[in-house]
Write a structure and sequence with these properties.
Order of helices and strands: HEHHEHEHEHEHEHH
Oligomer: single chain
Distance between the termini: 23 Å
Number of strands: 6
Shape: elongated
Radius of gyration: 17 Å
């Protein structure tokens, strides 16, 4: 199992979904990695791609990304609502309310899976290849066509019922193992 799944399950059950003022279905996007924010071509491609996904996009903007958007003069498309960064619990509430996740964050890829949301990874590779293999995550980099195609495909595909990270009780299993070793 994965104790990260335990944490997401613990908090997500207690939180109400929050659309942060958006009316209707939306995607949640995060982008903060240097490979995306420090390259004006990748950053512009990311903005163009999310403009094509056919959903409103809630975008809590990381300070690094905000500075890069201003520095390179990259405008966000009209379907993107930029807001201040969210806390962990607010992020879980936004995931819960969303239809799709777009991110370059490693952790958010797994949180999306734990909460039953498909994910477009805004990178060329991922640490979580098992999520790509089971079809709940697609790599798109910052190519506008790949972002739009991946989003559309994921929104029209049922999520896998695979459980590569256990059942959400890794901590309990670990406690049993530790207790058994002290007998």
């Amino acid at each position: 199992g994965d104790v990260m799944f335990d944490v997401v399950r613990f908090y997500a059950e207690k939180l109400a979904a929050n659309s942060f003022g958006l009316d209707g279905p939306f995607a949640l996007m995060t982008a903060h990695r240097a490979e995306n924010t420090d390259d004006p071509i990748r950053l512009a491609g990311l903005a163009e791609g999310v403009g094509r996904i056919g959903l409103q996009v809630l975008f809590p903007v990381h300070p690094r990304t905000k500075n890069a958007l201003e520095k390179f003069g990259v405008a966000l498309p009209p379907n993107v609502t930029a807001i201040d960064p969210l806390s962990y619990k607010e992020t879980l509430a936004a995931i819960k309310a969303s239809q799709l996740i777009l991110t370059d964050s490693g952790g958010l890829q797994k949180e999306a899976f734990y909460m039953g949301r498909p994910c477009v990874t805004l990178r060329d590779e991922t640490e979580w290849i098992e999520l790509v293999e089971i079809g709940v995550n697609r790599l798109a980099g910052c190519d506008p066509d790949k972002i739009a195609t991946a989003a559309l495909a994921l929104l029209n595909t049922p999520l896998s019922e695979a459980t590569p990270y256990g059942d959400g009780d890794a901590a309990g299993s670990l406690l049993e193992i530790v207790a058994e070793s002290f007998k």
